[in-house]
TrEMBL record:
Name under which the protein is recorded: YALI0C10923p
Domain of life (superkingdom): Eukaryota
GO molecular function (one): aspartic-type endopeptidase activity
PROSITE patterns: PEPTIDASE_A1
Domain Peptidase A1: 57-366
Organism: Yarrowia lipolytica (strain CLIB 122 / E 150) (Yeast)
A Pfam family of this chain: Asp
Chain segments annotated as transmembrane: none
Amino acid sequence: MIFSHLVLATVAAAGVVHVPLTGRALDDVPEVRDYLSKRAFPDGVVHADQIMGQVFYETYLQIGTPAQNLSFSFDTGSGNLWSPGKNSTSCEAGQCREDTMFDISASETWKFKRTGRWWGGNGIFGSETVRYAGQTLKNFEYWVSTDQMNNNFGIFGQSAFKDPSVSFVQGLAHAGKISRAVYSLNSEASITRWNLDAPKSEWRRTVNNVYYGGYDQAKYQGPLTAIDVDHYGGYKMPMSGFTVDGEFVDDGKNYTVVLDTGGLTLQVPNKTVGILAKKHGGEWSLKHDRWTIDCDAKPVLTYGFGYTQIDVEFDQFIKKAVGGPECLIQRMTFASDDQTQLLTGPPVISNALVIFDNDRNQILVAKAKYTDESNVVEITGDIPGAVQYKDFLAGKPLPGDKSAVASTLEVKATNV
């Protein structure tokens, strides 16, 4: 969803903060587009929301003293805080947006740590005062470029480290602002590729919510499956396979996915895309180097996470070929058949409720429920009602469902 309107928000209740964030039009930030081919709340829950642009979730942080209000990509596919420096080579050459550049010399609280290369460029590691969602963390690690960054745009990484000076969620937990290092994401609607073809007056605007220390119980349906990752803050997780229009794709592969809010597209195995295309009258086109498909097809690709199934409406990737009557599957990436690690962007994430439970080395996934109802709860211990992916792999039926089919997949954790 592409747009550039300021979203106004208010403090909903004592102990809960709902901050104003923006979504940025794609045309405003072509450098990001080119690079990223990728209510009342209880105490103890920190809340913010992001508006989904075509490319990324954008949010604002206040950094330094006096505070500089800077724009960042809210990124679950990385784990650090980075931004371009105002005096960097790229920014002095006019390649940075004004609200992305940090001026080290203007902050009284900046502390130099070391120099180092990161995010495609050279820069300075320091510590700073960081404010987000109404919360303040001091001496937080922050990398500022001196020459360039891959996209010359700030990155607010969410993948956790145990160091509270590096991970925002860990910093909140360490400071006692939330009970555990856990946060959740839920979208208020499914995010599709609609805006690529729609006039700006018809662009769809979708809000994504992040809750540090809690989740909204009203925003999911069906099983909430807990999937183990093999280290603290891991964000790559196994999946149990794909289905196309309800038919399981049995290719003998064990896939892992990275849930990346900074991602531009989906990576789907070429064989799976081919099965989907052929089910709807398509074939491989040597002329276009893509799969053709019936222009009126409405296929559904389902991501399996054990007991949880996440559907993606695939007609959003169907578009007529330039200069020809046939339709092609476009705007997503055909992964080679030997590639087993796949990136997934907002078209998948927005169809799920996702909880990143860093303390338990787990990611929990459920099918999204889009409703005006809300029931945000703090997470202090076990997450009520969660079922275990390892039980699915062991062939155990879903509690209360004697018709569940046993799995033959091998139990494996992941390492990213």
